[in-house]
């Protein structure tokens, strides 16, 4: 390489010596290009300064944004992020059970799932992402996907979700929401939602009534409320005890993946557990209730009645063992019934009782010392009071009856003659003590108080109606309560049907026993019971000594009771009593010598032309009574009822 060349090929430059103490020599013209280059290098610091200014500006903007994000908008942005990944979950409170006195379940809840789909979204998503569905082997086309989904749901749920029904709903792209099935088994529902993300499963409860119609008109019905995420009682005790049964839903927050319902493990927080509802135990005996309903329905058919009801009650405590009506509904198929089939006529529908109301006259006459069972009463062929002329159900001339015979043979004329001696004021006081014209307070919704005309409104003929059970009304439960007072030595205990409530922590709270209401003295009550045994009396030697209710008799047991027949007002006669439609009633005490049970029966509009069955409820009392003495293992009476004289020769 030449000596005057650099390694890079450029000419070598040698520095010229500088005179000591003098100025540097001027560069030659050959140096001018280098000076120009030097001038360019001299501008570089400006660019650096500008770059630094720009960098500082960027950092300032970033810092301001960071402060804004982490400070001013921190809460708002955090909340938005939380909404994107966090899901608030409602934890269902399981509704409490309703059980009978022996723990037999009458109503309980099970957790289920409702399955739904957004048909519009499914179709649109398939159009956008067909390969995703194909890769997951969910279908080769949209139609194939729908068919496979419908078939899979049916395979899991059976007839609860038929393929044709599912397919029609999945393909209904006119809607963004389609309910596929309610109350699916949670395990089977999970298999569906796990395979098909388009199907959404929502937690719910199904109310189950294992015995169907048994006590349905007492228990009632509860239906799922989607807005409240809980079942709500609509009728019966399910309604009146809704706050007790429903419990309190809980909540928790969880993170979910990709806007789905899939919960991320370990993300549960803000957990507030659900509090289940309380369990309710009734005084009802499911076996007795079943038999009462079965026999009542059969008697309705046999007698040609429009409907009927029956009460079985504990003679001492007033606890109700059965409260039956005809044609009970099955709450498991609630939607199959008409509104009028869902009520409880035994507590909500009053009627005129007829001769069962003669117990008031019987009790008053004994209590006030007016008559004794063997007192002789002159019974005329007819009886006139004010503008009313009253006759008996059978034709007779002027006869003499014992007071026991007046009740046993159900003489209207004899009853009114004795009631007149009691007097109107004392009589109306007895009606009040027996609980008429006032609700029993049993705790069932829709209870009626019945109707007793106020004393101030009575006319001369009012007192010709009331003692024979016309002109006032009562529910079957009130009627049974009247005889419960006689069975319980003169103390009326208001009936109850709720035995206890068991709270979620296991604490059992017994229903307070109602205060008894004194009606008559114990001796009066016993005398009336003994006297009313004549109703079930049958003398094979003399038909005149037969009581009206002898078909009710049960071999080996003393029974007390009373038959009743009441004419119904006829709209065609301007509301006057007709002669074609009747209420027939029966009230009985079992056994009379050691009362354990009281039974009340009412049949509405039976075919009165059918002998015995159409004109009396006594045979039905015999049927249910025969079952009850076996079910409760009630010992036979020590002695049979004595045959007493009802009518003098």
TrEMBL record:
Determine if Transmembrane helix is one of this entry's keywords. Answer: no
Q: Where is the Penicillin-binding protein dimerisation domain?
A: 92-259
Question: Which keywords fit this entry according to its UniProt record?
Answer: Membrane
Compositional bias ranges of the Low complexity kind: 1-23
Q: Where is this region: Disordered?
A: 1-41
Q: Where in the cell is it found?
A: Membrane
InterPro entries linked: Beta-lactam/transpept (IPR050515), Beta-lactam/transpept-like (IPR012338), PBP_dimer (IPR005311), PBP_dimer_sf (IPR036138), PCN-bd_Tpept (IPR001460)
Cited Pfam families: PBP_dimer (PF03717), Transpeptidase (PF00905)
Q: Tell me where in this chain the Penicillin-binding protein transpeptidase domain is found.
A: 308-624
Primary subcellular site in the record, as a coarse category: membrane
Family of this protein: Belongs to the transpeptidase family.
Looking up PANTHER family in the UniProt record yields: PEPTIDOGLYCAN D,D-TRANSPEPTIDASE (PTHR30627), PEPTIDOGLYCAN D,D-TRANSPEPTIDASE FTSI (PTHR30627:SF1)
Listed name of the protein: Peptidoglycan D,D-transpeptidase FtsI family protein
User: Taxonomic lineage per UniProt?
Assistant: Bacteria, Bacillati, Actinomycetota, Actinomycetes, Pseudonocardiales
């Amino acid at each position: 390489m030449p000596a005057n060349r650099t390694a890079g090929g450029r000419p070598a430059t040698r520095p010229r010596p500088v005179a000591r103490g003098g100025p540097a020599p001027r560069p030659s013209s050959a140096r001018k290009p280098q000076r120009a280059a030097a001038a360019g290098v001299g501008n570089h610091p400006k660019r650096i300064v500008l770059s630094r200014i720009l960098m500082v500006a960027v950092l300032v903007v970033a810092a301001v944004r960071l402060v804004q994000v982490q400070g001013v908008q921190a809460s708002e942005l955090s909340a938005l992020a939380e909404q994107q990944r966090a899901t608030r979950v409602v934890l269902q409170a399981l509704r409490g059970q309703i059980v009978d006195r022996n723990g037999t379940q009458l109503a309980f809840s099970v957790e289920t799932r409702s399955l739904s789909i957004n048909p519009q979204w499914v179709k649109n998503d398939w159009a956008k992402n067909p390969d995703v569905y194909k890769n997951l082997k969910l279908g080769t086309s949209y139609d194939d996907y729908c068919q496979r989904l419908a078939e899979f749901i049916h395979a899991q749920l059976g007839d609860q979700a038929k393929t044709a029904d599912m397919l029609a709903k999945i393909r209904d792209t006119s809607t963004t929401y389609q309910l596929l099935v309610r109350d699916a088994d949670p395990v089977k529902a999970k298999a569906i939602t796990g395979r098909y993300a388009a199907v959404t499963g929502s937690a719910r409860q199904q109310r189950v009534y294992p015995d169907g119609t048994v006590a349905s008109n007492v228990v009632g019905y509860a239906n799922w409320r989607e807005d409240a995420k809980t079942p709500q009682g609509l009728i019966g005790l399910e309604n009146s005890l809704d706050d007790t049964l429903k419990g309190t839903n809980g909540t928790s927050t969880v993170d979910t993946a990709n806007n789905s319902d899939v919960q991320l493990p370990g993300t549960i927080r803000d957990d507030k557990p659900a509090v289940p509802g309380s369990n309710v135990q009734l005084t009802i005996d499911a076996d007795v209730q079943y038999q009462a309903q079965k026999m009542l329905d059969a008697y309705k058919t046999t007698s040609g009645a429009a409907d009927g009801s029956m009460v079985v009650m504990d003679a001492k405590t007033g606890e109700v063992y059965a409260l039956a009506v005809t044609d009970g509904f099955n709450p498991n198929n609630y939607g199959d019934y008409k509104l009028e089939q869902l009520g409880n006529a035994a507590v909500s529908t009053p009627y005129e009782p007829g001769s069962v109301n003669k117990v008031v006259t019987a009790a008053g006459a004994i209590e006030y010392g007016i008559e004794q069972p063997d007192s002789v009463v002159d019974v005329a062929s007819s009886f006139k009071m004010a503008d009313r002329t009253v006759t008996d159900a059978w034709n007779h001339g002027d006869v003499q009856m014992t007071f026991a015979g007046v009740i046993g043979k159900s003489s209207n004329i004899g009853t009114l003659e004795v009631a007149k001696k009691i007097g109107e004021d004392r009589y109306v006081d007895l009606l009040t003590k027996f609980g008429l014209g006032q609700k029993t307070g049993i705790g069932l919704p829709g209870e009626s108080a019945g109707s007793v005309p106020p004393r101030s409104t009575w006319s001369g003929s009012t007192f010709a109606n009331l003692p024979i059970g016309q002109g006032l009304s009562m529910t079957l439960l009130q009627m049974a309560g009247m005889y419960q007072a006689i069975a319980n030595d003169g103390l009326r205990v208001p009936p109850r049907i709720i035995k206890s409530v068991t709270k979620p922590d296991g604490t059992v709270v017994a229903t307070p026993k109602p205060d008894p209401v004194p009606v008559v003295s114990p001796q009066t009550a016993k005398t009336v019971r003994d006297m009313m045994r004549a109703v079930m009396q049958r003398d094979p030697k003399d038909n005149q000594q037969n009581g009206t209710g002898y078909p009710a008799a049960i071999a080996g047991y003393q029974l007390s009771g009373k038959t009743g027949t009441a004419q119904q007002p006829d709209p065609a006669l301007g509301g006057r009593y007709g002669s074609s439609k009747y209420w027939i009633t029966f009230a009985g005490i079992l056994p009379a010598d050691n009362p354990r049970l009281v039974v009340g029966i009412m049949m509405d509009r039976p075919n009165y032309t059918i002998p015995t069955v159409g004109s009396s409820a006594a045979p039905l009392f015999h049927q249910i009574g025969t079952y009850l003495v076996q079910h409760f293992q009630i010992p036979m009476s020590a002695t049979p009822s004595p045959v007493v004289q009802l009518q003098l020769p």
